[in-house]
Amino acid sequence: METKKKQANKCVCRKIEIETQVETYLTKIRRGSFLLLFIIFCSNFLLAQEANLSSDYNPFSLGVHLKNMHLWHGSVVHPGAVIATDLEYNSRNKKFTFGFWGGASFSTTDVYNETTGQTVGAYYKEFSIYTKYRLTDRFFVEAVSHNNYTGVEERGDQLHYWSYDKTQGYNFVDVNFGYNITPNTLLYLATIIGGGSGDYEVQSNGDLKNSWTQYFEVNSVVWRNESSNLTLFVGGAWSFFTDKTFYTQGKGNVVNVGTTFGKVFNIVDYNVPVAVTAMWNPETEKTVLQLDIELF
Fold first, then answer.
1. N- to C-terminal Cα distance for the chain?
2. pLDDT of 28
3. From residue 171, how far is each of 127, 154, 241 by CA, in Å?
4. pLDDT of residue 22
5. CA torsion 149→154→158→163, rounded to 10°?
6. Nearest residue to 167 via CA among 131, 124, 202, 134
7. Fewer C-beta neighbours within 10 Å, C or N terminus of the chain?
8. Those residues with Cβ within 8 angstroms of residue 120's Cβ, 6 or more apart along the chain or in another chain
9. pTM of the complete model
């Protein structure tokens, strides 16, 4: 009798397990179907908006960059060679932009797997989403979902692309504002509003307090001619709420100082923009030189 009860319990548990797996699978299907329908709806809407426009307007564009490393806001995101791509939609009046940006490396970085206790190599992988609206010729607002999932699976974690849990460490959202005080000088303010990647401080009771890190940058073109230009920039980060930020170990610091020289080379009637950035981060004492070749 006892054996029959155990078998019955096993059957019930197995049934519950199967039902749970089926429900999870159906949930994924529903999410995927919703995303597909949303993409189809947006595509039809955009095409309908542009249907009667003249053929000289192309709403979609793509770009490919080859870089010896990838820098961002004073940080070396990946120290090795990277290919970066973007796919973008722009409205006819050029006020609205929506796009995808992705990066992949040719070399690996070391990540630690806590389960195996070993250090393994992981390729840099990023798929970010951004949108921008230009309220005037000088002022714009922008939102970026940074999705850098380098080494997530290699270190033993499960990849959840749409997760913005602050502790999972690879998705976070920036809301940004830009204002050109002159045609050559831009003021840029970025605020992290959610997600992970360590933008929080651990309190004495174990609670996690959001830093809501602010990043402010001034960059200005100080010289140019027909094919070249020189830009100077300086950026800093701070938090009003914690004693650390996303970019610094303290409450605030200058984290991004440097210059970028850009030149357009003509190769067999094909223009190839090339930029070299010399960057110094006073917070980490890192000094690097980035080469960025725009293939198209």
1. 75
2. 47
3. 10, 17, 21
4. 43
5. -10
6. 202
7. N
8. 110, 111, 113, 154, 155
9. 0.81
Residue 119, class by beta-carbon neighbours within 10 Å (0-12 exposed, 13-18 middle, 19+ buried)?
exposed
pLDDT above 70 for 295 = yes
- The C-alpha torsion from 168 through 286 and 120 to 155, rounded to 10°, is -10
Radius of gyration of the CA atoms of the chain, in A: 24
Residue 95, CB-side half-sphere exposure with 13 Å CA sphere = 3
What element of type H or E holds 266? strand 252-267
| Residue 211 exposed, middle or buried by CB count within 10 Å (0-12, 13-18, 19+) | buried
Tell me which amino acid residue 122 is. Answer: A
Residue 136's Cβ-side half-sphere holds a number of Cα atoms within 13 Å equal to 7
What tokens does 259 get? Answer: 């210059």
Residue 184, CA distances (Å) to 178, 221, 228, 262 in order: 13, 5, 14, 14
The Cα 55–Cα 157 span in angstroms is: 48
Q: What is the pLDDT of residues 158-194, one digit of tens each?
A: 888 888 888 777 889 999 999 999 999 999 999 999 8
